[in-house]
Each structure stands twice: as C-alpha cells, then as structure tokens.
C-alpha cells in the first residue's frame, strides 16, 4: 500500500481566514514533505519532517506553519494568505532510511484558492 | 546550467509508438533517479526509480541511466492515449536527501 491521504481536496479561503491542511500516511514512512505546485511548474519544496522533527524549511513565509503531531500525520496551518498563495498543495512521504529511502509517494493534493 | 533539465515539449507520438523522454543533470555525485507521471490537475505518481547504470524495465516502461554522460531517460513502449501526461524527472544529488525535480516533459499520445 502506497497511499497518502490529504484533506480537504479543495479549499477556498479569504485572506483573513485561518485554515489547516491535513496529510496522513500509514506506510511507516519516517520522512514527510509539503510541496507547493503552480500550474505548469514542478513541485516546489516547502518543508521536510524527518522522524517527526522539522529538518528543512525552504524559507517559507511564516503565514505557513507546519506541524507533525506524530509519525503518520502532517498538518499545514494557514493564516493571512495572499492570492498568490493559490496553488496545489502536495504532501509526500518516503521511507527515510534504507535503499529506497528517497522514493516519494504523493497524496492527491489540496487545491487552495485564496480570495 | 539548471540542476535537472528536461525538454518541456510537448512530445507528440502516435498510439503504439515508443515515447522517449530525456533528462540531464548537473551534479556528478547524484545517486538516485526517479520518474513521476502527473496527469493534469492531479498529483505526481512515482513510476520508476533507478540507482545503477544501465536499463531497468517495468512493464511498458524502461528507465535508462548513464552516469558518465549524466542523463537518465524513460522509454514508454506501445504508447497509449492514457499515457498522455507530464513526466517529471527527479534527481537526488550527493550531499542532499531531497530529490530535485525537473520542469517536466508533456507527452501527448494521439490515436
């Protein structure tokens, strides 16, 4: 099973709203990632959690706040977003160790629209 | 020079033909190479990973890696209209544990 789930599928929020994106995997993977993807562009790395600790923050604005409550869950808290933050937000996971440690499995994504 | 380069396409092939997608990379210390397929509006799906020089086959897909020439390619045999998608190449450099994505190649398979 290589399933990563994400909720919600779609989200429309105003610039003053606070919302959260959720991601879950039950593959025992120890690395989890948040990516942002704009149309016709490759995924852009935002954050990496390794063994539940934040290991990479790609200089993401503080209006995006990640959280990893446990090894299976990853959240992305959103606050005071701008219209240019509208994009497909992707969660991914990988084993984090071993020969296949870097194979990333993506969730279906959350399509975010900021109005 | 970009770290991972792909021709953006579109690459158009007739149904039943072999589609050949290419990717070059700049870091000679790169160790792991991945191909993802992404349908429009959907998320990337891992279809192949390759770690050693040579060919790796999985069904209609063959990944080819040549570290001396710093390229990795994906061949799709007996292409089907359902193969029409963007194919993303990702490369893990030496010294990093995060793969770097190319911009992707759009493939169109026409009946």
According to DSSP, the number of beta strands of chain A is 11
Radius of gyration over C-alpha positions of chain B, nearest whole angstrom: 13 Å
Strand content of chain A: over 45%
Report on the biggest sheet of chain A.
Answer: 7 strands, mixed
- Outline of chain B, from the CA principal axes? globular
Please give the alpha-carbon distance between the first and last residues of chain B. 36 Å
Beta-strand percent range of chain B:
over 45%
**Oligomer, anyone?**
heterodimer
Structural class by SSE content of chain B: mainly beta
Number of strands of chain B: 11
Structural features:
heterodimer, A: 115 residues, mainly beta, seven-stranded mixed beta sheet, B: 111 residues, six-stranded mixed beta sheet, 0% helix
Structure description:
The complex is a heterodimer of chains A (115) and B (111). Chain A contains no helices and 11 strands. Chain A has 115 residues and is mainly β. Chain A is globular. Chain B has 111 residues and is mainly β. Chain B is built from no helices and 11 strands. Chain B has strands spanning 4-5, 11-14, 19-25, 32-38, 45-50, 54-58, 61-66, 71-76, 85-92, 100-101, 105-110. In chain B, a hairpin with a 6-residue loop joins strand 4 and strand 5 (45-50). The A-B interface holds A 2, 31, 33, 41-43, 45, 48, 56, 88, 90, 99-109 and B 32, 34, 36, 42-46, 49, 51, 88, 90, 92, 97-99, 101-104.
């Amino acid at each position: 099973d290589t399933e990563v789930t994400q909720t919600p599928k779609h989200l429309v929020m105003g610039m003053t709203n606070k919302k959260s994106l959720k991601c879950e995997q039950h593959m025992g993977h120890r690395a989890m990632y948040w990516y942002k993807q704009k149309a016709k562009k490759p995924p852009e790395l935002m954050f990496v959690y390794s063994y539940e600790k934040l290991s990479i923050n790609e200089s993401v604005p503080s209006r995006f706040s990640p959280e990893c409550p446990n090894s299976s869950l990853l959240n992305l808290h959103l606050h005071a977003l701008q219209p240019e933050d509208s994009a497909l937000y992707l969660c991914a996971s990988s084993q984090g160790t071993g020969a296949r440690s870097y194979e990333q499995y993506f969730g279906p994504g959350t399509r975010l629209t900021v109005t | 020079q970009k770290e991972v380069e792909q021709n953006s396409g579109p690459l158009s092939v007739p149904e039943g033909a072999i589609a050949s997608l290419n990717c070059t990379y700049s870091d000679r210390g790169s160790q792991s190479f991945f191909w993802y397929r992404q349908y429009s509006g959907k998320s990337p799906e891992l279809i192949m990973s390759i770690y050693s020089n040579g060919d790796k086959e999985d069904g209609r897909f063959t990944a080819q890696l040549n570290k001396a020439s710093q390229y990795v390619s994906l061949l799709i045999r007996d292409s089907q209209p359902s193969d029409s998608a963007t194919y993303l190449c990702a490369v893990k450099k030496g010294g990093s544990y995060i793969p770097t994505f190319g911009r992707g190649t759009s493939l169109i398979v026409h009946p």
